[in-house]
Amino acid sequence: MKKEKGFWASVAMTIGPMGIWTLLFFVFPFIYIILVSFCSRDQYGNIVYAFTLKAYQTLLKPAYYMVILRTVKMAFVVTFFVILFAYPYAYFASRAGKKVQNLMIIGVMIPFWTNSLLRIYAIMNITSKNGIINTLFMNLGIIDEPLQILYTNFAVYFGMIYSLVPMMVMPLYSCLQKIDPAVLEAGRDLGASSFQLFWKVIFPLSIPGIMGGLVLIFVPAMFNFYVADALGGGKTIIVGNLISNQFSTAKNWPLGAALSVVIMIFSTLIIVLKNYVTKKSEV
Q1: CA-closest candidate to residue 161, choices 229, 254, 106, 81
Q2: CB neighbours of 168 closer than 8 A, spacing ≥ 6?
Q3: Which positions ≥6 away from 129 have C-beta within 8 Å?
Q4: 92, 74 in Cβ contact below 8 A?
């Protein structure tokens, strides 16, 4: 009896604080955001706790659902290019020697040692009219006048991809490293070409890593409003910008909460898709 009480006491001591933390800072805010999304506001911006679908009806206006569609499209494009750039890097890192492997992983981890906002300011400096790219091109005689790179959609996409590539490299590297070299040797012995070996053996086995990285990339790509603000000059509006403006400037918390709920639904669908594809690939 004493042992049983001691066991439950130790469980309460270890799990209890984490449970309270989760309830206070994750569960309650989540429930509150959903609750506020079904409220309205008065003329002073105060929340009126009366059930209404007004905030969700507002999202059906072209100005809002076009922003949502643009954001989802951006997230898909960014995710595609992140996978395109991260996959070869992760593959060669997983197959390299121990020293080269460590150097490649450290090279991916170094950006995490600096603030993400500082990295974005570095990109602003590189892509500005007096930045490294324009200076180099003009010195080489490729262009006669500076290119407008900063404050364009290209700069926003570039910043998003640059910021999120490490998020895909790490889960892919972890997954590719687990592939048994004997499996690849067996494929070669059976006469498989390099492309067949990749498409029929390596790629299917790396799908869990891709799906794991997808969750880490797709959701931040919809919310990283500071990247869109800094590199797009405020001209590229995504859902993250819209939510921030509704909570801070417009004081329309119900609409901001409704937008947050919509994005949470998208995020949940991505996680469900990830779990489904992962299970299918393991069968």
Answers
A1: 81
A2: 82, 83, 86, 87, 90, 210, 213, 216, 217
A3: 146, 147, 148, 150
A4: no
Q: Under DSSP, is residue 250 helix (H, G, I), strand (E, B) or coil?
A: coil
Residue with tokens 């906002």: 117
pLDDT tens-digit series, residues 30-59: 899 999 999 998 888 789 999 999 999 998
Q: Which two tokens stand for residue 237?
A: 């509006």
Plot region of 251 (φ>0 → left; ψ -120 to 50 → alpha; else → beta): left
Beta strands in the chain (DSSP E): 40-41, 47-48
Encode pLDDT of 8-21 as tens digits.
566 566 676 777 88
Name the residue among 87, 235, 97 with its Cα closest to residue 155.
235
Q: What pTM did the predictor assign?
A: 0.84
- Of 244, 241, 217, 216, whose CA–CA distance to 231 is shortest? 241
Helices (H), 141-224: 153-177, 181-189, 194-197, 203-223
Percent of the chain with pLDDT over 70: 94
